[in-house]
Amino acid sequence: MNINSITNQIKIPHELKKMNELFEKAGFEAYLVGGAVRDMILQKEETDWDLATNATPEQVMSIFHRVIPTGIAHGTVTVLFMNRQIEVTTYRTESDYSDGRHPDKVEYSKNIDEDLSRRDFTMNAIAANLATGCIKDPFDGCTDIKNKIIRTVGNAIDRFTEDGLRPVRAIRFSAQLGFEIEKNTLEAISNPSVMQKTSGISIERFRDELIKMLKADKPSEGFKLMEKTHMLSQFLPELQNCRNVIQSDKRGFHEFDVFDHLVYAADGAPKEDLTVRLAALLHDIGKPAAKRTEQTSDGEIITFYNHETLSAEIAGKILTRLKFPNNIVNSVCHLVKQHMFFYESSWTDAAVRRFIARVQLENLDQLFALRVADVYGMHNVPVRLHDSETGKNLCELKKRIEKVLKKSTALSIKDLAVNGNDLMTSGIPAGKTMGKILTQLLEAVMEDPEQNTKEKLTEIALNLYKKFYTK
Questions:
Q1: Residue 351 contacts by C-beta under 8 Å, 6 or more apart in sequence?
Q2: Is the Cα torsion angle 313, 315, 321, 324 positive or negative in sign?
Q3: What is the three-class DSSP state of 40?
């Protein structure tokens, strides 16, 4: 952003100008407020539009045809207008947030400046007139935006003890925008009364902020701020426990402790893929419990045997606690559990088929992205996919997989030429025995895809049943 580009006026979108005509016709005024104004000043693409007005929710509902009373108790409704959903909130003042999020008492105000005074940060306490685009900036938020500073409106402890989510938002904004949190604002996050208020926010609200932080270019900056302000111990103690878990030895695989490795790995994962970013952040979360030190003739070796299984278990508990959807929990845990694969050119085609079956075809791209992120996190250096050892290895494995897929007819039990009914017809009873035999049939087909015919598999199944499962 060119610092000289900050002016006292922004361009108002056509839809909002048309909306403003209806407000004015009814005798009211309206302003664009919050993040959209900030993003326009930053010359970033804005996503959501929030308006503030001197019209009450009931008056807004009388002006527009399609209105949803989403937060009418707090003065907010959602207007459906020109294919957009636009939140409209009546100018208000507030007092006491006993639940750490919503004001106990809402009083409407007729003044946009008074409304702006209740907002969290100066960069968000800016309003733009919908008719002219002229900016109201009573707390000099434009200067803070120019200087890339996050500062509360008024006393930081007061603002944070009003709303326990605000400290989390400060850290998320810092990671997301690349802004520095002003000294007093940063110190206030660790204030005991603020920490107590923050600990009371709903886990869903923390999760939503975490998701936004993970979509930043470098989420590691946010996690380091969470650590510095002791917020990490409140919400992600398992990650905090990875600090000072040394993993570097004479082999030189790792440069950082487990904590730094994990947050840098998150940086190295694709920002548009939340599942991979979560997997990168948590893929070694079980290392503190798995760490062992071995003395060898060549010196001390640090090992983390079976850490992928422990990490998958811990990741599942963390994501469940944070109330992530089950499909994300399951996908992340699967990637974490499978991340310790070591492909070599000596793998047989059967070994490649077993790898595909274990990982599952639909997860391969994400697993490879996790491997790249893992390597990135070892030294905090981007991985060159075309000429690095990691890139060459993954490229070769991809080609092997493509080759195997052209020839393979079965990568799971459901792909076999026989099913449970076929085996029952041939005399094998349903139950655990049948399940074991189907697994063995899949193994046979993995070794030799040409075995996948009904005649051959029935013969193999009967032989297995007679040899191992009958007296």
A1: none
A2: negative
A3: helix
The one-letter amino acid code at 373 reads A
Predicted local distance difference test score (pLDDT) of residue 94: 64
Contact call for residues 457 and 426 (beta carbons, < 8 A): no
For 443, the token pair is: 């193994």
Please tell me the pTM assigned to this model. Answer: 0.90
Contact predicate 460/426, CB 8 Å:
no
With CA atoms as reference, report the closest residue to 381 among 281, 222, 260: 260
Under-70 pLDDT residues of the chain = 1-7, 94-105, 250-253, 471
Cα–Cα dist 351/408, whole Å? 12
Please report how the helices 219-228 and 274-282 are oriented relative to each other, as an axis angle in degrees rounded to 10: 50
At residue 69's C-alpha, the angle toward residues 66 and 71, to 5°, is 145
DSSP H or E stretch at residue 102 = none
Residue with tokens 């491997």: 371
Catalogue the E-assigned strands of 96-192: 105-108, 127-129, 135-136, 149-150, 180-181
E strands of 267-379, at which residues?
A: 292-296, 299-303
Helix 166-177 / helix 203-214 crossing angle, nearest 10 deg: 10
Backbone angles phi, psi at 245, to 5 degrees: -85, 95
Residue from 73, 74, 33, 80 nearest 53 by CA: 33
SS3 state of residue 447: helix
pLDDT digits (tens, 9 = 90+) for 360-419: 999 999 999 999 999 999 999 999 888 899 999 999 999 999 999 988 778 899 999 999
pLDDT digits (tens, 9 = 90+) for 116-138: 998 999 999 999 999 999 999 99
How high is the pLDDT of residue 103?
A: 62
127 has which bridge partners?
Answer: 33, 136
**Exposure class string for 54-72: b at 16+ Cβ within 10 A, else e:** bbbbeebbebbeebeeeeb
Rounded to 10 deg, the angle between the 274-282 and 364-379 helix axes is 50
Token pair belonging to 7: 């002016």
Do 251 and 344 meet the contact criterion of CB atoms below 8 Å apart? no
**C-alpha–C-alpha distance, residues 51 and 131, integer Å:** 13
In three state form, how does the secondary structure of 381-438 look? CCCCCCCCHHHHHHHHHHHHHHHHHHHCCCCCHHHCCCCHHHHHHCCCCCCHHHHHHH
